[in-house]
Design a protein that fits this description.
This protein is an alpha+beta fold. It is built from six helices and five strands; from the N terminus they run ααααββββαβα. A three-stranded mixed beta sheet has the order 4-3-5, with no helix packed on it. A two-stranded antiparallel sheet has the order 1-2.
């Protein structure tokens, strides 16, 4: 990531608190999207004190500012990832629920075309493609 936690919080116009910084730092270091509970446990493991409700409020705020992407998996559990460097789409395994980011946006040109044809101001989109990952196929 090219931006620091301070940069991210300044970008969204939010007060720089220990809890917000901790949530961002956990997400910055995450290889995959994390649930609020996972983020909470990571912060506690690092020795910081934060309430789970604070983690949820922070994630809701960051999602509303388009800094965090909320992904609801097939297991019904919401997971979060930072999107300060642009949005991402995912391949999601229906067996183990592993999420793999797609490194390009397959709808980028289509989104512009749809917006022009419909006179609709498109503000974003999400794609989750479901299937069986290579590890689960081996089993």
């Amino acid at each position: 990531m090219g931006k620091t936690t301070d940069d991210i919080l300044a970008k969204i116009g939010c007060k720089n608190t220990k809890s917000r910084k901790a949530v961002i730092e956990v997400l910055e270091n995450a290889e995959n999207p994390l649930s609020a509970e996972d983020i909470f446990l990571c912060i506690k493991k690092q020795g910081s004190s934060v309430n789970l409700s604070t983690v949820y409020r922070t994630l809701d705020l960051m999602e509303s500012k388009s800094v965090v992407n909320k992904i609801v998996m097939m297991d019904g559990k919401a997971r979060y990832e930072l999107t300060v460097d642009g949005h991402r789409h995912h391949l999601v395994c229906t067996n183990c629920h592993k999420s793999v980011p797609i490194d390009f946006c397959p709808l980028e040109n289509m989104e512009k075309d749809i917006g022009m044809r419909s006179d609709f101001d498109i503000t974003g989109h999400k794609i989750e493609i479901y299937g069986i990952c290579p590890n689960c196929k081996k089993e």
